[in-house]
Amino acid sequence: MVLGSRSEPLSQVEVLVVDCQATAAAPRGHLLEIGWAQVRNTVTHPHACLIALPDGEEIPPAVSRITGISEHMMRAAVDRQLAWRALCYQAASLTQQPAPTVIHFARFEQPFLRTLGAGLFPLDVVCTRDIARRLLPNLPRCSLRALAGYFGRAVGALRRSADHVEATAFVWQELVRLLETKGVSTWSALHEWLAAPVEPTRCRRRLWPMPRDVRLSLPHAPGIYRMLRIDGSVLYVGKAASLHHRVNSYFRKQNGVPERLLEMLSQARAISFDVTPTPLEAALLEPDEIKRRRPPYNVALTIHDRALWFTSPDLSARSPEPSPDCPLGPFASPETLDQFVALARGDRAALTSGPWGPDAGTFKAGYERLCATHPELSCVDLSPHAKLLRLGTRLWREGRRDRDVDEDEANETRASTVWTPEFVQVSLEWLALRAALARRRAIWLTRLADSSVVWREPDDGCARLIVIEHGEIPLSAAVDASAPPPIPPGCRRPAAARREAFTVASFDRLRVLTTELKRLIAAGAPVALRLGVGRALDESRLASALWWV
């Protein structure tokens, strides 16, 4: 065998792994970054360089958000022809020519690379996505992240070219092992195999990597579950009233499955779980497990980039710590607080946290409609913030309770809306309502931080007790169904001391408990909550208290 010939074993072929980032697909887009690395048995350190955009071109905000590449970073960008020459120099160092080149989803990269080459193209490209689709025809998704996870490697957000290069190199090495089991053992044989027609083998129903008997063996019991990669790393943590029904529900649906879920299920190869006595206790265990494991497919209840805030009683000022000036909290959304303050000033910033906001004239007309419609806003004895909180409370009492909407969903909805003065007024009313409700929730969570609960799940004869102290749960036990909740150990702690002890973890735990109490009340289950030395709140009194939060 001659080193560097096309008959060299595929596992020994030295390849160039390449990735490009661009402002959009060709021909509309412009290159932002090129990255590459040489791969044989090991991967050399990836090299990447930013590419200068043509004069007058800017990075689209969505691309900047996805890649993390900013206009400031582009000051270090190089001319695209200089980057191309560096890539060609690297390609020329390979023993086989044209250089064996591996790209994931090469249909995106190749138009940019061929344009740079201007007729001279020293790269012999194969696509790892095309190879994977042939080798693994029933895998739900063959994205780079899904394939890396399927083979047992956790990858990050894959924002930059170097990240893509490293992940592609790993996937390539795993695919080579599979190719050799199919008798595809050389670079030439790989090209022939890719060029050959393939009989359709994809099943009408999706086939999942996780063995069916693994998920069918789960118990019909409440608890938390963890979706695992083949190496045991955690993809996702969830809770369930029935582990068997909840986990198997992921694999029954064949159509309309979100892309993110398909990507996760392409990697899930095993399940681990913990059984809990009740669904409520499973729900309380879930946020702690998410924070401990930091699984990539959990969005809610994570701790990343989150903080708690405390405010003045009228929400006019905020602070990351409770203080005499900002004694009220905790709050989780600084955006809502800042927008509320802007609303109190009559500032358009109340509705412009994104590019979707109304123009100044439309906002002014909508704000004037708001003030003219609600008489409490003309009260001279109250501050603007207090008047808006009074308005929000009245709107809540009148039943103007919209569903909770996350910030991204709200922005997307408003982006497709034609702003009118009427819609501005409705949006400002909703902001006042949200602020008033957030204030009440903060007061409720502060009281709930030292409490005790006795409940019985629907259709379950066993009563359970949990005791909450400093937002933690030191005691969880079975009790007599007729026993009242005990006096909470920390019920005499002042509110200021409770707020000082709050963490993101305890905040989430108490929010989850509040949601579970609402579930029990809605189901007609017996439940009692004790907040102090007085008698416990029974179902009717608790339902009245929870109505506000």
Description:
Helix 5 crosses helix 6 (161-181) and helix 12 packs across helix 16. With 549 residues, the chain is of the alpha+beta class. The strands form four sheets. Strands 3-2-1-4-5 form a five-stranded mixed β-sheet, sandwiched between helices. The protein has a four-stranded antiparallel β-sheet with strand order 14-13-12-15, with helices on one face. It has a three-stranded antiparallel β-sheet with strand order 7-6-8. The protein has helices at residues 61-67, 80-92, 106-117, 128-135, 144-150, 161-181, 187-195, 212-216, 243-252, 259-267, 279-293, 334-344, 360-373, 384-397, 407-415, 421-448, 495-500, 504-522, 539-546; strands at residues 15-22, 31-39, 47-50, 99-103, 123-127, 223-228, 234-240, 270-275, 309-311, 318-319, 328-331, 451-456, 463-469, 472-479, 527-530. The protein has four domains: 10-195, Ribonuclease H-like superfamily/Ribonuclease H (Nucleotidyltransferase, domain 5), CATH 3.30.420; 212-293, 3-Layer(aba) Sandwich (GIY-YIG endonuclease); 309-436, no CATH class; 449-546, no CATH class. The protein starts with 14 loop residues before the first strand and ends with a helix. The protein is globular.
